[in-house]
Amino acid sequence: MTEPRDVVEQQLAAYNSHDLDAFVATYAEDVVVHRRKGDLRGRQALRDTYAGQFAEGRCRAEIVGRLSEGDWVVDHEVAHGLADEPVRVLVAYRVRDGLIDRVDFLN
Hints:
By secondary structure, the chain is of the alpha+beta class. 31% of the residues lie in helices and 43% in strands. The protein has three helices and six strands. The chain has a six-stranded mixed beta sheet with strand order 2-1-6-5-4-3. A hairpin with a 5-residue loop joins β1 (27-34) and β2 (40-41).
């Protein structure tokens, strides 16, 4: 069985290398992403949302802290390339059956 921290780390590596297929592959088919500007539901919505950022190669996340307990991994991230200045955010990932099935942006 894959550890939740390993899955989240794979997701981060794919995000930072702008590998959309590898990024989406770390998520469950029915993933739910809770964000301030609206929820995303499903892998296809995730792909559609991130495709432009990845194609432009403008996004990168730096982890400044990580906690985990059970199925949950919480990262303190600094996101670059999404705004004029870096954006600091807490992101909670729930991993079940080796895939991320829920994400909560806590900003």
